[in-house]
Amino acid sequence: MTITEARKSCGMSRKAVAEWLEIPYRTLTNWENGARQCPPYMEKLIVEKILTKKEEKI
């Protein structure tokens, strides 16, 4: 699962995710658009964190 897929499944905007994770909005946008590559270990951690947040909402 990608960051984009996890974010959309949780119903979060890019801005909300960037602010919540305290990373620059531009960085997240570049990762999602493929302009830059997120390190695989970082993407895995971010996806896990987003999905955990989704579970907490339920």
Descriptive notes:
- With 58 residues, this protein is an all-alpha fold.
- The protein contains four helices and no strands.
- The longest helix is centred in the last third of the chain and has 18 residues, at 40-57.
- The protein is globular and about 30 Å long.
- The two termini are 20 Å apart.
- The model has no long low-confidence stretch (mean pLDDT 93).
Mean pLDDT: 93
| Oligomeric nature of the chains | single chain
How does CATH name the architecture?
Orthogonal Bundle
Low-confidence stretches: none
In the residues, how many domains can be counted? 1
Radius of gyration: 11 Å
N- to C-terminal distance: 20 Å
Helix content class: over 70%
Q: Which helices and strands appear, and what pairs or packs with what?
A:
Elements: H1 3-10, H2 14-21, H3 25-33, H4 40-57
Helix pairs in contact: 1-4, 2-3
Keywords:
single chain, 58 residues, mainly alpha, 434 Repressor (Amino-terminal Domain)
Write a concise synopsis of the structure shown.
By secondary structure, the protein is mainly alpha-helical. Helix content is 74%, strand content 0%.
